[in-house]
Amino acid sequence: MLREIEAYAPVEAVFGNMDEPALQASLPERRVVEVEGARIGLVHIAGPRGGREERLASSFAGCDAVVYGHTHVPQVERHRGVWILNPGSPTERRRAPSRSLIVLELAPGAEFDIEQVFV
Predict the structure, then answer these.
(1) Hey, what's the torsion of the CAs at 6, 9, 12, 17, to 10 degrees?
(2) What stretch of H or E contains 27?
(3) What pLDDT is attached to residue 110?
(4) pTM score of the predicted model
(5) Which of 45, 63, 67, 69 could disulfide-link 39, Cβ–Cβ 3.0 to 4.6 Å?
């Protein structure tokens, strides 16, 4: 599936706990990407709820935003100047109130434009 998505646009990804072993072996656990001058940290499992925002901001020092998943619970919040983002899930809401995703737009030198979409 990842290779099919890459046919449409560049993809930066980390592995998740439900990914097949071959995909997990081909992707890192954590990654930092730069987009339009912004540094964005990526990780699937962000650890226990307690202290999560501080842990992510510290683990991805120098990043403007950190995107994580796993919980399926959406989060859009700033912690010490870093955006902490969880898009939720457009397919399995689990404990979240609804299915969701995040659209993040960046322009050179501009602030993040974050749209949380509930589906």
Answers:
(1) -50
(2) none
(3) 64
(4) 0.91
(5) 63
